[in-house]
Batch of 2 targets.
Target 1
Amino acid sequence: MTPFDTETCRRYALQHFPDICRARPADSHKGTFGTAAVLGGSKGMSGAALLAGEAAMYGGCGKVLVGLEHYPPPAHRARLELMIDDAAAVAAADADVWIVGCGLAQTDSAAALLQHVCQRARVLVLDAGALHLLPKHPLPAPSADTVRVLTPHPGEAAKLLKSTPDAIVQNRVWAARELATRHQAWVVLKGHESVIASASGFLRINRNGNAGLATAGSGDVLAGLLGSLLAQGIAVEQAVAAAVWLHGAAAEWLAARQTGPIGLLAGELPVAVRWLRNRLVTVAGNN
Ligand SMILES: NC(=O)C1=CN([C@@H]2O[C@H](COP(=O)(O)OP(=O)(O)OC[C@H]3O[C@@H](n4cnc5c(N)ncnc54)[C@H](OP(=O)(O)O)[C@@H]3O)[C@@H](O)[C@H]2O)[C@@H](O)CC1
Ligand SMILES: Nc1ncnc2c1ncn2[C@@H]1O[C@H](COP(=O)(O)OP(=O)(O)O)[C@@H](O)[C@H]1O
């Protein structure tokens, strides 16, 4: 069994992303921790959007909306806390952060949804299907007061850069930086040792996590967690790297409890993230 050292994690988090280690103010309410909206879940892929929504809730967001392109979904085990509706209705709602693409198909209606949300969103996380739409349906560049984050895996990065997954894996730092510059965005190039880059030159290679994350839906969980931290007001300079690190640490924590790496389920990650976030919390005078 791989050991998991909570105190080492806490020290690392305090050094690199202190804002995720802060205790909640006693007088806080759900509005304090923001609203995230997930848009995705086309036919056969509602699970992806629901996983992102669950991850956003367990990551500490105050309120989470999930808009499904294929609505109503077939019978599904979804958290009752999620506010689930059809994608068009959710796209018209208010949210601090939009997470678009988890389980989103390549249809004209999905492209229209993406364009619509892009005009309204101040903070936009683009994953999976949204990334596949970009080559044919480019978005206007983000304005100075907006934040955009792209979370491609090597297959999605290859499509965006007109390359191949193998070539991307061989040139991961270049690919992440190139995407960040071209899209004026923060980029997480996912995979073993994910690369994080920004248009302004931030670069970090995330070293934690394990092969348990190589399972369907774990990228959807990452997108939801990232949107969650951003909705909670954590600055993008900390939120992106913190989400990738928390996701990896959650997989390590599960593996240490023999819930993986083999057979780890993406849906098991959010509870582990919650456990971890609460152990990272420091109170004044105790750090
Ligand atoms: N429960 C649900 O509803 C779920 C729904 N989901 C939703 O399904 C949709 C399709 O997503 P998807 O990832 O399955 O297919 P797609 O985007 O075509 O990419 C495949 C290509 O990328 C490559 N590739 C990937 N990683 C790589 C790496 N590290 N290193 C190298 N290559 C890598 C891969 O390579 P290969 O496997 O050929 O080696 C292949 O070329 C999406 O919307 C998602 O949200 C899923 O999240 C699952 C749970
Ligand atoms: N071998 C690995 N080591 C560490 N992290 C991994 C590994 N394989 C996958 N991951 C992580 O798991 C997630 C997979 O995301 P993605 O490929 O988008 O899957 P899905 O579309 O099924 O959700 C990414 O965050 C990636 O970095």
Target 2
Amino acid sequence: MTDTATETTSGAAPGQRGPDRGDSVLPELRATWWETGVRARAEAGVFTVFAELPRLVAQAVTTSWRADRVRTCVVAGATIGAGAMAAFGLLATQRVLMELFAGGPTADKMVAALPALAALAGATALRAGMGIATGYALNGLTPRVSRVVERRLFEMTTEVRLGAFDADAFADDMERATRGTDSAISLVPASTNLLASLVGLVAVGIAVVVIHPLLLVALLVATLPNAWASLRAGHLRHQTYTAGSVRRRRLWLLQRLMAERTSAPELRSYGLRRFLLNQYDRVMDVETDIELDLARRVTTTTTVGSMIGGVATGAVYVLLGLLLIDGQIPLAAAATCVVAVQAAQRALATLTFQIDRVYTEGQHFGDYTGFMTRAAAYLPEPAAARGSGSGGASGPAAPSPLHELTVRDVSLNYPDRDTPAIDGVTLTIRAGQTVAFVGENGSGKSTLAAMIATLRTPTAGTICWNGRSLAHWEIDELRSRIAVITQEYHKWPFTAATNIALGDVDSEARQDRIEAAAGRAVAHDMIQDLPYGYETLLDRTFANGQDLSGGQWQRITAARGFLRDAELLIMDEPSSALDPRAEDALFQAIRDRQGQATTILITHRLANVRHADRIFVLHHGRLVEAGSHDELIAAGGRYAELFALQAAGYDVAPSTSVPPPQQR
Ligand SMILES: Nc1ncnc2c1ncn2[C@@H]1O[C@H](COP(=O)(O)OP(=O)(O)OP(=O)(O)O)[C@@H](O)[C@H]1O
């Protein structure tokens, strides 16, 4: 973390967010610590690194073991073997030198050195062979590790409750976890290399001690400054990285806004180019300052380390010279010692490098594993716990066919909102009914529907399917009985047929079913007119891909909802972009369900809810009126007022009523 960042955050509680009213720095531009754990870790000293290493290496081994046991064994065995061979090679070198520096005729010395030379050649060949084996095994292991780690991340992100995505900390956490998946790939070889260099170093250390114990101390003095500098630099990099999560997300968002197709039209029509580029510059100014500061601190650290290391290395050679002059070691031993010192320095440099890598990648991977742990808190309650907590049954049961849906005193508070989005709502919907939720923007209609659809959990109160809490029933089974057409539908980048088939992925995607659903949603003819009909790819960013108009997309979305012959169909603003003819046909299809299946309709076009069996009017999260259209008009309340406002737009008095859409 930078000094500036420390100052910025030191006064604020970790996780403190919100608009920055006092100064001009946007919240996303500041280093943000949303969680004490992250801050504590980033501020930890260098020596904490050593304490964490075993855990990080164990993490790497476990991940790799899960991905591919055989290759893990090969990599571990061959890397450690190669390290041992390197050490053995050094000892053989020492032996060769001893023989060559001994007294006597050269030919005899050559003969005497031959066995050690052969051992050296054998060790070198074995080491090379093991290196090749490690490379091969790693090539196969890396993509497997990557897949296992990434898949687990996606398993988690697709299972957590919807509420997780409302928490900003979750988004930051996920950003770092995504980076952490890449680290899994580097962590495995880095850990094995770390072990190998450790083995090599221990062997070299023993060799040096054998020559003269004092040399070991000198060796450590010569190499430790560089090792410390390298570790410290890695630590600084990770601190800065950890502090910049929000800023990076902001940057990524701006990059997308300026480069993506969806934002391109508004960007041009409102002339947002300069505005966005300015935003980009502001973020990048901060980013560049932080990067430069980091580079300065890293360079200073490594320069100081190298200088002290250089002086210390010189001192080692001086010591060696003094020992030689003093006659404490023979020339052969001194020569071997020079080789050994150099080998030890190389081994320690490699070890330091690997420690740095393991630590840095391990920290990133720790972000991933930490995210997986924290995200688990957002997982739906285990089925058994839900089942036992709701009526004493042993576990969740398959839902019986719907005959009554009851909402009892239900409230929902979104995080960080003072007022509840839904506040003590009670209502009953009987099977076969078509009911409507109406009310002004933000009155809570979608939130209530989302709770009924099991997408959100009430903060208080209960929603019951046939008299038993939703939690009592097997959640996937329940969801398969409910079809939801959301207001914020997603444009899936698949073919038109697949876009509809997604509505019931567990059943066979039969063309006749898809076309029937499309027919009910007035989408069939429109799809037929596409260049490749149902096989047209609905993503303009791929070759031969097409895009649709808003209304055409809405028809596809409605078809998706109709595909599943759901007992309960929830349609949230299904016709906001439809032309009058399509809208009329869609509502006819909805009316066809009346008496046979249950439908919850959310719409601001009140003419379309006149046929509903019951209309529930929400206001500021509360249920303020309920009844049929005629009852509510007669009551002259909020519904009557809203209806009159809309009817006035058509010059039709509410009392005379709008003629019903033609029945087909
Ligand atoms: N994910 C969320 N996090 C925080 N607040 C939310 C979230 N979603 C909705 N809200 C708030 O909850 C309230 C109810 O929103 P909801 O979407 O249920 O209203 P609505 O009646 O469906 O509105 P509209 O007619 O505009 O679709 C609003 O004040 C809204 O700002």
